[in-house]
């Protein structure tokens, strides 16, 4: 089963070489109970680590069950440890956050195709070692002897061929030590090879063979029951994995030597030495990740908080950007299509900026002349100002706009309820009004305003319609306005003689530039504007304005997204720091997991999944928090926000990606730890 030839091992401590083993040769047969003795520093523990595939010799050859260990890859070594070797450590090495039964079943996590294979249950094994009433207890609720029994049950869960015990009684009282030795003797009687390292003479009574070490060499090798014959020891031919696993006599001895209610089922032979990544293992990784989170609540909260803030910022920023785009679309739609806007512009004279209209003022006649230009479909002269609207005992200061009946067609804004005024009502200066949604809400609440009378600047007006909702633009509420007939607004309410601006709808988009130029020439000619003051007339192409606004919104969205992305990266760096600390704190755990069969990929996957789990939890909470922030901005600040499912999904996936990216280095660092160095870590 085990054959060592000229094994040497030297440790390099600084510039000093410390030989631990010197040309050790040894054969151990199936079913032996070997006690390896020697003082501290004699090399016995180093030998056990090499036998258990936790360390490699510097020189010599080691054949385990017919396999040359030096030819095995790291994954194959891990599979050997998982399938054929059970470890019992002096320090127990139980995971504190797992219950006894969960500690016992830990090696199954790293077993391929575990659902289609039969193993003894953790509960049965714990009953076998006398812990039937401690199955659901945590390690800190068990005595030292009980913890060591849990470790033995863990070593037996995979029905190993070999039990390796390193000073298993070192932390136990004499009574517990004797009970533990009885357990080892019973296991050996069932056919399991037991190799135990100790420095106490009285603990070797149950052993069939005692090997003594001194200064890295075997100084004696004594068979207490007489040296077995080659046929008894199985040395007549090399032992292979398939032969050992399929040997009927050994199975019978195992089954006959254990309590009748517990049968240890033989495991199948190793297939290629590589574990298959399956759903069972993935599920366990996530379960372990959640346990790790809950075991360090404060640290986990701070880690999650960093991701939460980043994701919430992403959601809120995207909601603002999406809401702004939706609002802009609404606003641009209300401007109509193929639209030109004619208005007086600011003018600079003698270093002084003059207000719009100081040089050139527009009139209703200008609008009538513009309408005669070819390709002009509609015109809408407009005046605006402020005023107070009163209904009953309520009043509201709002914006007043005077327009023509062409307004709803040019601005794609027909009355949502009621009707718009007609040409006759405009010419006769009728006292009719359409109210915006904000004005309706402030004055009428749930009451229908159609047909009611309101006072505008102390003049009674009849409400004939309600304007469609337009939403807010920045700090300006586009629904906080009322619309009057143009002549009514100019001569009854605002007292204006001139037009503030004229909207012009062009029939064909291709003719926009020509019409724009003709309008400017027309106004210059009608008002005798000298060349030096031609800039006092401005004819805006609203399509260009729409494009500029859309571009600005897009740039703003990118800016907000960049800020949110940076905050998420900061959270990711925090995750990396936490995971590095976690790897350092759990170095012994990594060593234990490798000792019971975890390979580098298993450790890498586990720590990456822990990082991803932290980020996904933070991502979900961040999405909820970001949605709440967006709702608050919409309600209290009046901003347009919209949380889209696509943005939430993107933030969720991105948070997982942050966990993968920033968890990779700590996870790789953990996966590359040498198992024996990790187990020795203090």
Commentary on this structure:
With 682 residues, this protein is α+β, with helices and mostly antiparallel strands. It folds into three domains: 2-276, P-loop containing nucleotide triphosphate hydrolases (Rossmann fold); 295-330 and 548-680, no CATH class; 361-528, no CATH class. Helices cover 45% and strands 21% of the residues. The protein is built from 22 helices and 24 strands. It has a six-stranded mixed sheet with strand order 6-7-8-3-9-10, sandwiched between helices. A hairpin with a 2-residue loop joins strand 4 (59-64) and strand 5. Helix 10 crosses helix 20, helix 11 (297-335) crosses helix 20 and helix 20 (600-637) runs antiparallel to helix 21. The longest helix has 44 residues, at 542-585. It is rod-shaped and about 125 Å long.
Largest sheet, order of strands side by side? 6-7-8-3-9-10
- Overall pLDDT metric: 82
What's the alpha carbon Rg, rounded to whole Å? 43 Å
As an assembly, this protein is single chain
Distance between the termini: 34 Å
Q: For the record, what CATH class of the largest domain applies? A: Alpha Beta
Uncertain segments are 230-277, 350-359
Query: What is the overall silhouette?
Result: rod-shaped
């Amino acid at each position: 089963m085990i054959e060592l030839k000229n094994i040497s091992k030297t440790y390099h401590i600084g510039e000093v070489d410390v030989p631990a083993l010197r040309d050790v040769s040894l054969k151990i047969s199936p079913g032996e109970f070997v006690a390896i003795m020697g003082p501290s520093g004699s090399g016995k523990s180093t030998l056990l680590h090499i036998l258990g595939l936790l360390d490699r010799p510097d020189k010599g050859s080691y054949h385990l069950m017919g396999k040359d260990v030096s030819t095995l890859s790291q994954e194959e070594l891990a599979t050997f440890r998982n399938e054929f070797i059970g470890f019992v450590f002096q320090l127990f090495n139980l995971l504190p956050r797992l219950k006894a039964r969960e500690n016992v079943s830990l090696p199954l996590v790293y077993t391929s195709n575990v659902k289609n294979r039969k193993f003894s249950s953790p509960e049965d094994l714990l009953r076998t070692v006398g812990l039937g009433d401690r199955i659901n207890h945590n390690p800190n609720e068990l005595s030292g002897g009980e913890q060591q029994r849990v470790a033995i049950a863990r070593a037996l869960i995979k029905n190993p061929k070999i039990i390796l015990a390193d000073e298993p009684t070192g932390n136990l009282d004499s009574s517990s030590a004797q009970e533990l030795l009885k357990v080892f003797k019973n296991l050996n009687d069932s056919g399991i090879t037991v190799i135990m390292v100790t420095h106490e003479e009285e603990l070797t009574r149950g052993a069939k063979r005692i090997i003594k070490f001194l200064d890295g060499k075997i100084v004696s090798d004594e068979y207490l029951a007489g040296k077995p014959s080659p046929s008894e020891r199985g040395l007549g031919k090399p032992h292979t994995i398939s032969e050992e696993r399929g040997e009927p006599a050994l199975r019978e001895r195992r089954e006959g030597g254990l309590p009748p209610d517990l049968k240890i089922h033989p495991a199948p032979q190793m297939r290629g030495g590589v574990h298959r990544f399956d759903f069972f293992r993935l599920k366990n990784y996530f379960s372990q990740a959640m346990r790790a989170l809950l075991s360090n609540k404060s640290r986990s909260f701070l880690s999650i908080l960093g991701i939460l803030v980043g994701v919430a910022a992403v959601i809120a920023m995207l909601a603002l950007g999406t809401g702004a785009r939706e609002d802009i679309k609404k606003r641009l739609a209300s401007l109509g299509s193929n639209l030109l806007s004619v208005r007086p512009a600011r003018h600079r004279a003698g270093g002084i900026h003059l207000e719009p209209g100081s040089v050139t003022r527009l009139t209703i006649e200008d609008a009538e002349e513009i309408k005669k230009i070819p390709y002009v479909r509609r015109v809408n002269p407009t005046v605006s100002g402020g005023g107070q609207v009163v209904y009953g005992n309520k009043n509201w200061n709002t914006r007043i706009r005077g327009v023509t009946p062409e307004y709803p067609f040019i601005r794609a804004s027909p009355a949502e309820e009621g009707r718009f005024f007609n040409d006759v009502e405009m010419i006769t200066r009728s006292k009719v009004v359409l109210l915006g949604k904000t004005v309706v809400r402030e004055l009428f609440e749930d009451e229908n305003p159609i047909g009611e009378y309101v006072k505008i600047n102390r003049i009674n007006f009849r409400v004939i319609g309600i304007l469609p909702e337009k939403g807010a633009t920045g700090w300006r509420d586009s629904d906080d306005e009322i619309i009057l007939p143009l002549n009514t607004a100019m001569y009854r309410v605002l007292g204006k003689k001139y037009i503030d601006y004229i909207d012009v709808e062009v029939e064909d988009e291709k003719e926009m530039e020509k019409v724009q130029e003709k309008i400017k020439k027309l106004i210059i000619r009608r008002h005798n504007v000298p060349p030096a003051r031609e800039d006092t007339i401005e004819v805006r192409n609203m399509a260009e304005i729409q494009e500029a606004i859309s571009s600005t919104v897009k740039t703003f969205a990118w800016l907000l997204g960049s800020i949110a992305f940076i905050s998420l990266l900061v959270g990711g760096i925090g995750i990396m720091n936490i995971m590095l600390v976690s790897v350092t704190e759990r170095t012994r755990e990594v060593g234990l997991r490798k000792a019971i069969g975890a390979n580098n990929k298993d450790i890498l996957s586990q720590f990456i999944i822990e990082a991803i789990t932290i980020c996904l939890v933070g991502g979900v909470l961040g999405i909820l928090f970001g949605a709440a922030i967006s709702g608050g901005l919409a309600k209290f600040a009046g901003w347009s926000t919209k949380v889209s499912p696509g943005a939430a999904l993107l933030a969720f996936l991105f948070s997982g990606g942050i966990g993968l990216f920033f968890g990779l280095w700590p996870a790789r660092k953990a996966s590359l730890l040498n198992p024996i160095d990790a187990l020795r870590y203090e």
